[in-house]
Amino acid sequence: MTDYVDVAAANEVPNGDVIGRSLNGREIALYRLGDEVLATDATCTHGNASLCGGFVEPDGSIECPLHQGRFDIRSGRALCAPLTRDLTVHLVRVEGGRVSVRLSD
Ligand code: FES
Q: Domains of the chain: which residue ranges?
């Protein structure tokens, strides 16, 4: 695991939406679900689509824009076909209005 790295201001992450960031050469997606800020890999595990162009659903899932696979944002769990592999989630810390992310291996 790497250390936490500052990636965004907390107010740059809109509630119920997703934005993208690049961290150590890895594309990540940042989400806000109410008071929670969460991070996952940005690339869908099914194909070469960015989840940053996807749709955050009210149940806390992200829908891939290419084939509509859905992942649970908090756990990364693949929720439906055509997905067969879970998404990697990353640790997030919010302090002083800044969002820091610690990449998983
Ligand atoms: Fe995401 Fe196919 S690329 S569901």
A: 5-102
Q: What is the pLDDT of residues 47-77, one digit of tens each?
A: 999 999 999 999 999 999 999 999 999 999 9
Order of all β-strands in the sheet with 61-63: 55-56, 61-63, 70-72
Give the chain's largest Cα–Cα span.
40
Which CATH number applies to 5-102? 2.102.10.10
Answering whether pTM is above 0.90, one says: yes
Our mutation pick for probing the ligand 1 site, out of 51, 67, 84, counting the most ligand atoms within 8 A of Cβ, is 67
